[in-house]
Amino acid sequence: MARKILHVDLDAFFCSVEEKLDPALKGKPFATGGSPEGRGVVSSCSYAARQYGIHSAMPMRQAFRKYPQLLVVRGHYKEYSNQSKEVMKIIHVLTPLVEQISIDEAFLDVSDLPAEPKRIASDLQMAIYSNMNLPCSIGAASNKLVAKIATNIGKSKHKGNTPPMAINVIDPGKEQEFLDPLPVIEMWGIGPKTAEDFNSMGIRTIGDIVKFPQEILVKKFGNYAYDLIKRAMGIDDHPVSDLEGIKSVSNETTFFRDVNDKRELLMKIKQLSEKVAMRLRRKHLSGKTVKIKIRWPDFETHTRQLTLLQPTNQDSIIQQAACELFIQEWTGGKSVRLIGVGVTNLTNEVQQLSLFNDLYQRESKLLNAIDELQERFGEKSIRKGIDLNDF
């Protein structure tokens, strides 16, 4: 029997929350994000704003050029988190098999429920809207890959200035038929650059991937080609699981002005490392690979990574690795536009070398105490100090 997988995506989530906080915004073109005077970007925009060609990740200056009367709302990120948690509680009432992949997206495995996917999706959509006054769109299919794409296609068909609240169900056995005519960029995991590579090869639709000579794809993309062909056929056996959707935990920041001061850059790495470590601990995860991302003023972007002997979720270990990677990449005095820290190769277990067990236990107790204080009084209430002169 085919699985029944739902993908739930809250429509323009940040803006929907802002409309709850200030009903006067409803129906107006507005966005949340940074200032147009600096390097701010649109983090979310209302569907009324999208009628003017504005979209998330667009520089705020460009958004204002498209619509000078655009309203910019300072985001209430704590409230977004609270609203997300409440939505996830509603989803968990339906099934315990939930995989949250972002603040506003989740997969559900509802294979054990007797109702048809469309009825389950409709009931869940109404439950979220009636209880939270938040619109959402839902894709349903026999696997996560097709359900995710179904949501995106359902939402893309909506052209109005109100949330789509789309429901798009792909019946079992119709996966490849659904995917075949779609532009290759609609494949989950394919970005603009890869889509350009495909287009240059004459591959313009997902169906073209299946028809293309396999040996040429393997020569171009290596073993990734086999997975790509399988997904283009609508085949995805990945289960819905808590850890499966979390491939990495990262934080990054774009500076208001380019920064070339070593101490300031290292301090930012410290702050980002603390945020990443705290998020890992809250999810009861650890990671073995630390990554750093640097973007220069000309938008050239470099990444470096270091794999540790043992998984960790401790600030100091992540920061030490990130700072070392930064020093390897950075030339003294060179300006930086963006910097980011991430941890991948995740696991639920934390293992430490026995030689450092006492030190590890002491730091763990300290970090747990800091986490508790920050949870109660805010992230700026207390911080762990460190000597940046070590780098």
Structure in words:
Helices cover 41% and strands 21% of the residues. It has helices at 13-21, 47-50, 60-66, 77-94, 117-132, 144-156, 175-179, 192-200, 206-211, 214-221, 224-232, 262-282, 315-329, 357-377; strands spanning 5-10, 30-33, 42-45, 71-73, 98-102, 105-109, 136-141, 167-169, 248-259, 286-295, 301-312, 336-347. The chain folds into 3 domains: 1-170, Reverse transcriptase/Diguanylate cyclase domain (Alpha-Beta Plaits), CATH 3.30.70; 177-232, DNA polymerase, domain 1 (Orthogonal Bundle), CATH 1.10.150; 248-390, 2-Layer Sandwich (Dna Ligase, domain 1). Mean pLDDT is 86; it is low at 349-361. The chain is α+β, with helices and mostly antiparallel strands. α12 runs antiparallel to α13 (315-329). It is globular and about 60 Å long. The longest helix has 21 residues, at 262-282. The strands form 3 sheets. Strands 5-6-1-7-8 form a 5-stranded mixed sheet. Strands 9-12-10-11 form a 4-stranded antiparallel sheet, covered by helices on one side.
Compute the CA-based radius of gyration. Answer: 23 Å
User: N-to-C SSE series?
Assistant: EHEEHHEHEEHEHEHHHHHEHEEHEH
Distance between the termini: 58 Å
What is the count of DSSP helices, taking H or I runs of 4+ residues?
14
* Top CATH class of the largest domain: Alpha Beta
The tally of strands reads 12
